[in-house]
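User: Predict the structure for this protein chain, please.
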Amino acid sequence: MPTVLPLPPSPVASPPAPRLQVHKATGQAFVRTRRDAKPLYFGRHGTPETAARYARFVIEWQANLPLPEVPAEQLLVVEL
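Assistant: Here is the predicted structure, written as C-alpha cells:
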C-alpha cells in the first residue's frame, strides 16, 4: 500500500464562525453572518437546544467555506 503524505497546512487560516450574541430585549441567541445581514435566531439563550442549534450552525458554516487554493507543485498523485 502506498504511503500518502498529508498536504502542508494552508497559509491562510479559515475565518472563525460568527459568534453567538444575545438580543437584550428578548433574550434570544442569534448570529449575523455579515454586518448587514439579518440575524439568525436559535432560541432562548442558555438552553441546551440553543447550544445544539448553534453547534450545528458552526459545523455547516465551516463545511461551506471555500477550500484554500493549493499550488500545483504541492499536489500529490497516489498510485492505486
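Residues 30 and 41 are 4 Å apart (CA to CA).
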